[in-house]
Design a protein that fits this description.
The chain is built from 24 helices and four strands. It is mostly helical and 503 residues long. Residues 476-503 are annotated as: Disordered.
């Protein structure tokens, strides 16, 4: 008994020693020498990216050295990270004898897959190898990824990975999907160019490709938590995708926030029968089943295809959607969700209205781009690209395609991008998409004053700035202050595609 007590005290001191090392810089970063992805040569990871993208960058800390059992891990981390240990100790992983009936069935499936009985799921099962009794901390420690979770949660992992088979037509394969979210970051030129201490904010959401705890918060991993809309809000918020805000202020959200506290969140979605939709009950449902594949009904592509790519092609949203058998099949899948509460006629009429509203948005965005492009071709955009700093590599400055491009969301210097381009960027990347997003979430204010009105304001500002630049050019020409020549670009609207999409 005395020996065990001394061991606990000793390990507590070990924990404190590690804590001292962590906060005093005693554990150096490792495996951070170069970036990855198509633009990997242009950037280097920072230490925190070991945790956002463990598949690419994580390696064990140099201390402590030694081989430990799961119980020793728990004792040490109880001194080092008591909140972490408390969350695990209260989790289903630590209490397999207290599972609900459906969880017991799931456990039986897991045990069959593993070929052995489980009494608990401990530190080494997730941070080493499932079933291992000891772990060499310096050599074998891993940061769990979705594949490791899939060793036990086979069905859920396969469903999640199957998102890679879907995507938005005319986007890269698998876009948009959670299962390729981090790779979407790596595909963006301006993300590679900008200070990683800033754009790691993108990583902290896009890391869902690597980490199940984006939805199932560690170390409790409660399914009951991940079934609630708040589980989505860390990432699905803000000016470019205010999903939680628009849901919260819709009638659907009003019912949830008023009555949701009394719903039984321990039930699987198929048995829940909520009286109002949630993020999960809508987006995880597909043709009679609930799944971790949440993109089989995806249509919008964050608005990039509808309100940016297709501006260059001159294809309005209704034509793009209705001429695609794939997208119309996804529309039917959405209607199957809507008719759980609404009539088929209302569901079709409302979604058709959303498409028609998107056409109205498209027209304003197209007109705004045509205005900016004409200023460039007349040589009176201020400042012209040749008279301002170039965007950092690897951003390719291909004009007029890049005018108002996504790079301006994260980089600016001395007139690049110009004010009129920045207005256009916010117009297509935020406001245009938000009109459709507001309609999709049935938030009346969301698709009127919060987005449509802001879109019109930017449109008016763009037209006003264009008139000012033309008047200034005419005065300069009349006063012979400096010659102005037209650019050589003879491209017509729709002749070229955009340079870069956001993640």
């Amino acid at each position: 008994m005395g020996r065990k007590r001394h061991m606990k005290v000793f390990l507590s001191f070990v924990g404190v020693a590690i804590l001292f090392g962590v906060f005093c810089g005693g554990i150096p970063a490792q495996k951070l020498d170069k970036g990855v992805g198509p633009y990997g040569e242009f950037w280097k990871p920072i230490p925190t990216q070991r945790y956002w993208a463990p598949d690419y960058f994580y390696s064990p800390p140099e201390e402590p050295k030694g081989v430990y059992t799961a119980d020793e891990c728990t004792l040490c981390h109880k001194a080092l990270n008591p909140g972490l240990v408390k969350a695990w100790a209260e989790s289903s992983h630590a209490n397999l004898d207290k599972l609900l009936d459906y969880q017991k069935e799931k456990l039986a499936e897991i045990e069959k897959t593993l070929g052995r009985k489980l009494t608990k799921v401990g530190c080494i099962d997730c941070h080493g190898k499932v079933g291992a009794e000891k772990l060499d901390h310096e050599k074998e420690l891993v940061m769990p990824n979705s594949a490791l979770c899939g060793g036990c949660h086979k069905q859920e992992y396969e469903e999640f990975e199957s998102e890679k088979q879907y995507g938005i037509p005319d986007w890269k394969p698998g876009r948009e999907s959670h299962a390729k979210a981090y790779d979407a970051n790596l595909d963006v030129d301006v993300w590679a160019a900008v200070d990683k201490n800033i754009v790691q904010g993108c990583d902290m959401c896009h890391n869902i490709q690597h980490k199940c705890d984006s939805c199932h918060t560690r170390h409790a991993f409660k399914a009951s938590e991940s079934r609630r809309p708040e589980a989505c809000q860390t990432c699905h918020n803000g000016p470019d995708h205010p999903d939680i805000e628009y849901y919260r202020d819709s009638k659907h959200g009003s019912i949830y926030f008023t009555e949701g506290k009394d719903w039984d969140w321990k039930k699987p979605l198929k048995d829940a029968n909520y009286i109002a939709p949630t993020c999960q009950s809508c987006h995880m449902y597909y043709k009679g089943q609930y799944s971790h594949n949440m993109v089989r009904k995806a249509i919008m592509g964050e608005g990039d295809v509808l309100f940016y790519d297709n501006v260059f092609k001159g294809i309005k949203p209704t034509d793009y959607l209705r001429n695609s058998k794939e997208l119309m099949a996804r529309r039917e899948a959405w209607i199957e969700v809507c008719v759980k509460c609404h009539s088929p006629r209302f569901s079709r009429d409302y979604l058709d209205s959303m498409d028609n509203a998107s056409d109205a948005v498209f027209q304003y965005v197209s007109d705004a781009y045509a205005t900016i492009k004409s200023l460039y071709e007349e040589g009176i955009l201020y400042p012209m690209p040749e008279n301002r700093p170039k965007a950092p590599a690897p951003v390719a400055e291909k004009y007029p395609d890049l005018l108002g491009g996504f790079y301006g969301e994260f980089w600016a210097k001395s007139g690049n991008p110009s004010r009129i381009e920045k207005d256009f960027l916010y117009m297509w990347e935020n406001d245009a998409f938000l009109v459709r997003k507001g309609l999709a979430h049935m938030n009346p204010n969301g698709f009127t004053y919060l987005s449509w009105s802001n879109l019109l304001k930017k449109y008016v500002d763009i037209q006003s700035e264009a008139n000012t630049l033309r008047r200034l050019a005419a005065l300069e020409k009349k006063a012979k202050l400096r010659p102005r020549t037209k650019t050589k670009s003879k491209q017509t609207p729709g002749a070229a595609g955009p340079q870069q999409n956001p993640p």
